[in-house]
Structure formats: C-alpha cells, structure tokens
Amino acid sequence: MGDSFHEQLKTDSWFLKSDRRLDTELVDKIILQLNRIYPQILTDKEATKFRDLDVPTCVRLAELLTHLQEKGEEACREFYRALHLHVEDVYFSLPTRLRRRLESVDPGMRPAVRPTDRYALNQQGPLFFLSCFSAAVGVALLYYYGVRPVLWTPLVLKDQK
C-alpha cells in the first residue's frame, strides 16, 4: 500500500472525527506533542487556538485535521506518530491500518467467506423456529378458546336464577 500519510489522513479523518475515544484530554495531548516537539508543524498560537475549551472537541479535532492536511506530508506523519504514542487503540482501529493488516495477511490464511454466512440471522436452526412458532400458536389458541367459556359462564348463571 503506497498511500502517503497525507492520503491516509484524508481517508481516516471521518473515522477520527466520529470516534468518541478521542476526548478533550487526548486531543490536547496530541496538540501539545505536535507543538512542543515540532513547532514548525504547530506553532504556539495555533496550539492555543486548537486547545480552546470553549470550542467543542469534535470541532477542534476537525479543524486540527484540516490544518495538518494543509501543512503537508510531514505534519500528517507526525500526527500519526503522536496518535500512536498517546491513543494506541484508536491508532490500530483506523480504517487504513485495518486495511493494511488485512492486506498483509497471507491469502491462504484469510478466513474463507461463505455466501451462506451473510444470510444467517442466528445459529439456532429450523427446530428453534418451529418450537417458537408452536408456542405462539399455542398461546393464540389458548387465548381464543380459553376466554370464551369464561365470558359465557356468568351469563348461564344469571339465566338459571
């Protein structure tokens, strides 16, 4: 996979913006690392802007990703490095990382996808369906035939008096 970090960040941006694991604290850690270690990528003024707590975290993250994409390849690479350092579980669940992992697996080792697997709703089988259907029919029959005699009984008693 020969994608540049810039292209990967374009692909992963939607996922990063929607992932709830990137909270305010983690976004601040990433911003501080980019600012302290690579001030040419994120200046003090820009870091202050992206760390403003009056702006929601999702908006700040979206603006940061756009800013890094405008800065170029090196900025995107350093963002991935900071993400890997501070939020490893998010880093390894990125769409581009998952795709790389699947592509690196030997084709002979990949699990075969059977077409019937897509349509299986549960693992119970036909006997489970028949038993549930029979129980529903039994309850319906009890309700239908079980309620009528109870309603007629008081009428019969009133007539006998």
UniProtKB/TrEMBL annotation:
For whether the record's keyword set contains Iron, the answer is: no
Q: What Gene3D superfamilies does UniProt report for this protein, alphabetically?
A: Death Domain, Fas
Where located?
A: Endoplasmic reticulum membrane; Mitochondrion membrane
Main location (coarse class): endoplasmic reticulum
**Listed transmembrane segments:** 127-146
Q: What is the lineage of its organism?
A: Eukaryota, Metazoa, Chordata, Craniata, Vertebrata
Cellular component terms, GO, for this chain's entry?
Answer: endoplasmic reticulum membrane; mitochondrial membrane
Instruction: List the membrane topology term(s).
Output: Single-pass membrane protein
Q: Which domain of life is it from?
A: Eukaryota
Q: Which InterPro entries match?
A: CARD19, CARD_BinCARD, DEATH-like_dom_sf
Name the PANTHER family on file.
CASPASE RECRUITMENT DOMAIN-CONTAINING PROTEIN 19
What species was this sequence derived from?
Answer: Ictalurus punctatus (Channel catfish)
This protein's assembly is summarised as:
Associates with BCL10 by CARD-CARD interaction.
The family database entries (CDD domains) matched by this protein are listed as: CARD_BinCARD_like
Entry keywords, A to Z: Disulfide bond, Endoplasmic reticulum, Membrane, Mitochondrion, Transmembrane, Transmembrane helix
Tell me the protein's name.
Answer: Caspase recruitment domain-containing protein 19
